[in-house]
Amino acid sequence: MRTITKTKKPANGFTLIELSIVILIIGILMAFVLAASASSLESARVRATQSLIAKISTGLEERIEALMTVSVTPNGTHRYLASIPVDPNLRPWGLVSEQRAQVIARMDFMRAELADVFFLDPAFPTANPKLYPIHFAGLPYSTNAPTLNSFKLPLGNSNNDPFIPDTYDAGKPINTGLGAAVDFVGTGINGASYAVAASLYKLIGYTPQGYDGIDNYPAGGDTYVDDYEEGTRNPDGTKNSEASDRVDRFLTNHQHKTARAEILYAILVEGLGPQGSMFSREDFRDTEIRDTDNDGVPEFVDGWGEPIQYYRAPFWHRSGGEPVNSESNLNRPVLQKGNGAYGVFESRQQNSLDPNGQLVSLAWWADKAGTDPTTPSKKCQTVMDYFGPLVEPKFDPFWAPPPSDMLSKAWDRSEATARRAYLTKFLLLSSGPDRVPGTFQLGDEFISGNTTFDVSRRIAGFVKPTTNGKFAFTPGESWG
After folding, report:
1. Are strands 152-153 and 188-189 parallel, antiparallel or unpaired?
2. Is residue 171 classed as helix, strand or coil in its secondary structure?
3. What does pTM read for this prediction?
4. Within a 13 Å sphere around the CA of 104, how many CA atoms are in the beta-carbon half?
5. How far apart are CA 480 and CA 472, in angstroms?
6. C-alpha distances in angstroms, 330 versus 314, 344, 457?
């Protein structure tokens, strides 16, 4: 009898080593896939942000073109600030230049119609009556304790004397026939026109009479247009609790980092007044518009969900152009001419609102053009306080003593002074992948703990740098 021996078949499956190798290969492949996906996602965010900024830029450019066609008439303040200082016994106003007055009036108008920021007025909670919780970083036109009328626009239009006295003509009568009739309503307040402010008030939740551009409360008017009392009341004067609740939500939840994106959305999408809006809400995807701080007001956001930062005229912004010299603490290239010296054959940068260089004319710019051409006149300094610098910051004693080697013909070929014509071009800024804008921004804690005047000055970029690490900034990190 023959014995049959069964042969053991090998077991089906993989050994532990084989499985480990397969898992390792799959892990490597997944890592490549995830890396590629992350790179594609980041690229998609970049493209989406670029597309949004390009679309917004088009709308802003169209708005600027429309605003430039609007006729602007200088008032007494514009004419006073435009005049060339002379012997005050002969002409207290100085020599009036209608062309320069037109430039200053245009700057005043454009600033009001292109408001680029706002903040919650720290004085509002204790104000009586409560009128304007929102401030658009406007500065008062007053040499004494400013009243709310001092913030009305056009500049100085609601003051009894439409000029700012200086050491030459303080207390002297102004009787030239060039003054403007006092209009205690004006065209705007706190740095923005009534139409621009209304675009935001509408989004905040004011009742229609709170953003209609009319002084209609209390009955007969109080010279204040579209104020808080109007926006939270019914036409018969009774309190509107729904509107009041919406406004309270905004005042409670608003974060300052969203302000520039919110005013940008308000102007371009909800714009009221003669210029209207440039877009409708349907022109944008849901990923491009969000309410990131839950204050009830939407804002434009980039591909990473952060608010788009909008700057009307970033005078010292550095993001492309010529190298910065070693004295600069911002070792980045320049977009605006900024603080780089002009070469002997280099043309002066042109301000689109001042094509004929009225604001860099030495006769007006200098305090005493014949004997002291390096010091800005009081009127020039006042214009800079309200609308932006006309001088290279290194030369302004307010910032730092000027380097002696730059006071030469190479600077502006006059051996006179560091006059600067800044390019007026807006900037739209995305936070990018790190979600940090990279530009100086005031915090809500600082805003709520300081005066309205100090907050406005800091936002405008005209405050002397401090050594306080939390709030310190230098020219280039903040602008109007």
Report:
1. antiparallel
2. coil
3. 0.81
4. 33
5. 16
6. 15, 24, 22
